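Quick one:
INPUT:
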């Protein structure tokens, strides 16, 4: 009986670890599909990395206005042989069905820093938003949640219609 309990605990711990690893690996695989699709011109891999409704967003340097690109346009304009860039996954994090990744695409004389929002849709991690900046080669991503100062938790608010938890997952 003691062996059965020990074996059950080991199996439970192994399956828990495997689940965490599979989420990590799934997010990394999504970002790698983006990298490989872009650097090889494999539009199928790009399509696998991005959700079909994904948007790419930046600020137009000439106008100073936010500029959006639908993923379909981005994929259709990917060069057949890919782009000549080195890629790096800087960091990633996730909780539940949402995740974030910071990535770098370095070209000969500039680089893009990408901030990717991911969602787990039907069991697959997909990039839903790519917010990007074109920067000089010596610019690096700055800031970190780990180095942020601790902020005291606010006092518990009295219940009122304004702070009641919504009944559905509508983002609020």
């Amino acid at each position: 009986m003691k062996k059965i309990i020990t074996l059950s605990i080991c199996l439970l711990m192994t399956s828990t670890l495997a689940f965490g690893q599979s989420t990590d690996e799934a997010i990394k695989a999504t970002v790698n599909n983006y990298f490989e699709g872009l650097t090889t011109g494999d539009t199928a891999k790009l399509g696998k990395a991005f959700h079909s409704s994904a948007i790419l967003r930046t600020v137009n340097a000439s106008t100073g206005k936010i500029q959006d690109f639908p993923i379909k346009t981005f994929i259709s304009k990917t060069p057949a042989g890919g782009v000549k860039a080195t890629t790096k996954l800087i960091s990633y994090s996730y909780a539940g069905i949402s995740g974030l990744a910071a990535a770098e695409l370095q070209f000969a004389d500039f680089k893009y820093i990408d901030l990717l929002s991911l969602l787990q849709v039907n069991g697959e991690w997909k990039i839903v938003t790519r917010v990007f900046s074109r920067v000089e080669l010596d610019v690096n991503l700055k800031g970190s949640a780990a180095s942020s100062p601790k902020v005291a938790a606010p006092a518990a608010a009295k219940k009122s219609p304004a702070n009641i938890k919504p009944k559905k997952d509508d983002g609020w």
